[in-house]
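User: My instructor asked us to take a sequence, write out its structure as tokens, and then describe one feature of it. I'm not sure where to start. Here is the sequence I was given:
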Amino acid sequence: MTEEPTRALKDASADPAAESTAETRIVVANQWQLIWWKFRKHRLAMAAGVVTIFLYVVAAFAEFFAPYSAGTYSARHTFIPPQSINLFQQTDAGWRLYPHVYGFQVEVDPDSFKRTYVLDETVTYPVGLFVRGEEYELWGLFTLDLHLIGAAQYGDPVYLLGTDRLGRDVLSRTIYGTRISMSVGLVGVGLSLLLGVILGGISGYYGGIVDNLIQRTIEILRSLPTIPLWMGLSAAIPLTWPPVRVYFAITVLLSLIGWTALAREVRGRFLSLKTEDFVIAARLDGVRELQIILRHMAPSMTSHIIASVTLAIPGMILAETALSFLGIGLRPPVVSWGVLLQEAQNVRSIATAPWLLFPGLAVVVAVLAMNFLGDGLRDAADPYQA
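Assistant: Let's start with the prediction itself. The structure tokens for your sequence are:
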């Protein structure tokens, strides 16, 4: 029994009328209400859901959240370490609220010619929210220059997560990378869902030769080593293709490999459903078999499919990150978390600029959030279990 009805019964124990109302609420509640009541008990999943929604909001409005555009660079500001925000400044009249970052001076080692940045507390650059900065086109429809956070005075060097070897803001590029990496997982899982439900449903519904053919195909695909298979498929993508076409090609390749697990789960469910009364009744009523699969049988396991899809998205994100990190997936000028991590491929880069690993932290947060959300949805998918 889920949390909300249980609490209602406890609160109504002293009042017979209220108890009757609570029992009636449980009886008339539909499956989605019961799932929601059970999902709310999973506090970690609720928090993960908030994080996941926030990541997709950032992906949709990346231009607004990023202080700079993904390609903006400054040759004078290469490998600048992250600048911390100081909220208060001491003046002759006392302390005042003045969010700012300190400036820096460049020191060059005379032997190695290595440049290092030293904080200069005599120079401050104000930082603000909802500041004016570089112009951008939001979704290709609106021309705006409003940014969530950045330098209060346009042109000041404010790099909250540092810069890379070309003087590009790591924070801005990580935010722009959210759009590609999170959408690859969403679109890829959407295609995998389509293949998994249709092929798994056909396999479980028809059985016989069709079932054997689909299952043997799944076994072959699952027996192949993943990384070499991805490398072979990615090598088939022409280098002359534009970034958008490469993006869709990588999405399709990931989907062609990721549908097998869901197809087997759908097959097992359909094997038990095809002898149910409502399926037999639909068949006797003359409903076409594809309609029986998609309109009658698939909706009966919608909650389980949602949970499976949520758990599959992190795998897609990691796959894209791994492919792009190895240089066989998305390539510059496309900005994704995997592409950004290429900057930290060697020990020298990590030793010189460890902040280049921040996109990896974004990957960890996204994958953990999606996994926790998927666990909560999977537990809540069967609301009748204790």
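For the description part of your assignment, you could build on this observation: Residues 281 and 287 are 9 Å apart (CA to CA). Try explaining in your own words what that tells you about the chain.
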